[in-house]
UniProtKB/TrEMBL annotation:
S-adenosyl-L-methionine binds at G115, L139, G140, D141, Y142, V143, L144. The keyword ATP-binding does not apply. Keywords: Cytoplasm, Methyltransferase, S-adenosyl-L-methionine, Transferase, tRNA processing. This is tRNA (guanine-N(1)-)-methyltransferase. It comes from Cutibacterium acnes subsp. acnes. It holds the Pfam family tRNA_m1G_MT. Belongs to the RNA methyltransferase TrmD family. The gene is trmD. Its EC number is 2.1.1.228. Residues 3-233 form the tRNA methyltransferase TRMD/TRM10-type domain.
Amino acid sequence: MTMRLDYLSIFPAYFDVLDISLLGKAAVNGLVEVHAHDLRDWTHDRHRTVDDTPCGGGAGMVMKPDPWGEAFDEIIGTEPDSSVHVIFPSPSGAPFTQSAAQELSSAVRIVFCCGRYEGIDHRVIDYARSMWTVHEVSLGDYVLNGGEVAALAITEAVVRLVPGFMGNPESLAEESFSAGQDGLLEYPLFTRPVSWRGLDVPEVLMSGHHGRIAKWRRDESVRLTCERRPDLTDSDFGVPH
Ligand SMILES: Nc1cc(-c2ccc3ccn(Cc4ccccn4)c3c2)[nH]n1
């Protein structure tokens, strides 16, 4: 099953990068097809205007609804279809999580609506909710200048989970933020040379003793999680279960 990804933006060139790297390979073997669109193609004035001043006053500019509506009509269609997932990256969106990426990895179609300026006229989101499955998502508690970088990050998180995309699916199981690691942070990784600039690989990892190695790795995951992400630990006991 091919996943179709569409990107609506006034900077569609952001998405040229999707033609290379891992994603390029997925596109080549037909797992994923990528279409980037310039929102200004759905404007009709000489200046190809996509923004206007905010009703009610305030700083900055707001993206007009009209170009979005016309782009939706052409790119997605005019009939409701809950199988189409429409993503609006937004600083006021719900935190994007690995489980959201997991869910989206089985979608047939995802349309990313990348806002700029202070954001998009809210009626665009309301209209989209009446037609498709809408996700307003935030990447984290920091402000970007637009939705494009968030769309790229979400794309990578989703596409790498599409069945048949990753070379060795086992590597997906062991990752942080996935059930395989009990929601703990990943332990430190090492490879050859065993000694590098006076720094050595922990001896236990060279012992060949799989039980000790597994224990060392879990202890490290617990230590790192408690140090860096106390929010991921179970507050009742203070240590991840
Ligand atoms: N996690 C995130 C997501 C975003 C994001 C997503 C889309 C847009 C469209 C415009 N802006 C700029 C902007 C600046 C100030 C207040 C509102 N928006 C965006 C920012 N920032 N951080």
